[in-house]
Amino acid sequence: METPKIALLGKTLYEIQQIVANLGMPKFAAKQIVAWLYDKKIASIDEMTNLSLKHREALKEGYEVGASAPVEAMRSVDGTVKYLFRTPTNDYVEAVYIPDNDRATLCVSSQVGCKMNCKFCMTGKQGFTANLTANQILNQIYSIPERNTLTNIVFMGMGEPFDNLDEVLKVLEILTSDYGYKWSPKRITVSSVGLKKGLERFLNESDCHLAISMHSPIPSQRRELMPAEKAFSIEEIVEVLSRYDFTKQRRLSFEYIMFKGVNDSLVYAKEIVRLLRGIECRMNLIRFHAIPNVDLEGTGMEHIIAFRDYLTQHGVFATIRASRGEDIFAACGMLSTAKQQEEKRHQ
């Protein structure tokens, strides 16, 4: 059986330099290769025309660009597109393209499934299958038709980014470095339930924006919604965050899905104000997209507006996130779950 080739896409400049050295190519070839990958976004090694034919052939023996197109796309009436990618192990992950006036955001996945098992999350219901490689994460950005229109990337798709931090940090390096996409870190937000080791490492090694999934400011209730609370509580997360400066370039936000009769009364708004006192941040209030077999309902817009107004009046800047793609399996993980179930039925 033929040995699979190694993907170049997702490799950092340092890793490409090692490959170049191992193949006996001149040092400057590494810079040429990353320019072809991340600036010109080529599809094959044959397109690297400033490398000699001999060096291209040597590279092709063990390597390939490693980009793969989505296997499915679902388009919403509001312009949102949900893309489904197949991994080499025949699993599926999702990326969602969200156009909004002069912004175009791509929401990317970092894992197949997730270990966090949040009650309200469809991806959590899948259980955990695998970490995505830097290649598989970056491919979601590299391989969509709208790639040249993107203004923002959010790591809010399937999986917990801090549970796969080595690969996520490699992708962030490629996106923000001079040899890579040359993006400002301000264009990228990484969302997490808040894993202690991952949180501190991310804050120290990256300048990208951070979003923490809160969903309840009360530890006992957050534990019921989000089992990760047992290991590292929202109080501890806020204590770690209080040691960092969010008044300059980097932005800190909290995600708060509002569940009817669960976390949507002003009692919770008051507790949020207490918890976040003195921290420069914003609160994103999110309508809940119902998922199968979960006894949670979304809060009505009147309640959400009242909640937002209370927070804003008491010093916590709050916004209501517009719901997008509700006609195309809006909740993250729904399309990949449906695809997996369909394939099992046909086996």
For the structure shown, list the relevant keywords.
alpha/beta; TIM Barrel; 2 domains; 14 strands
Can you put this structure into words, describing what you see?
Helices cover 34% and strands 19% of the residues. Helix 11 links the parallel strand 13 (282-287) and strand 14. With 347 residues, it is of the alpha/beta class. It folds into 2 domains: 6-64, Orthogonal Bundle (DNA polymerase, domain 1), CATH 1.10.150.530; 72-345, TIM Barrel, CATH 3.20.20. The mean pLDDT is 94. The protein is built from 12 helices and 14 strands.
Which assembly state applies to the chains in this document?
single chain
Proportion of residues in β-strands: 15-25%
What's the helix-strand series?
EHHHEEEEEEHEHEHEHEHHEHEHEH
Low-confidence stretches: none
Question: What is the CATH topology descriptor of the largest domain?
Answer: TIM Barrel
Q: Which class do the helix and strand fractions yield?
A: alpha/beta
- Write down the overall mean pLDDT: 94
Distance between the termini: 25 Å
Largest sheet: 10 strands, mixed
Q: How many domains is the backbone divided into?
A: 2
Q: Total number of helical segments?
A: 12
Q: Could you give me the name of the CATH homologous superfamily of the largest domain?
A: Aldolase class I
Return the CATH architecture of the largest domain: Alpha-Beta Barrel
Strand order of the largest sheet: 3-4-5-6-9-10-11-12-13-14
The geometry reads as: globular
CATH hierarchy class name of the largest domain? Alpha Beta
Helical proportion? 25-40%
Radius of gyration: 21 Å
Number of strands: 14
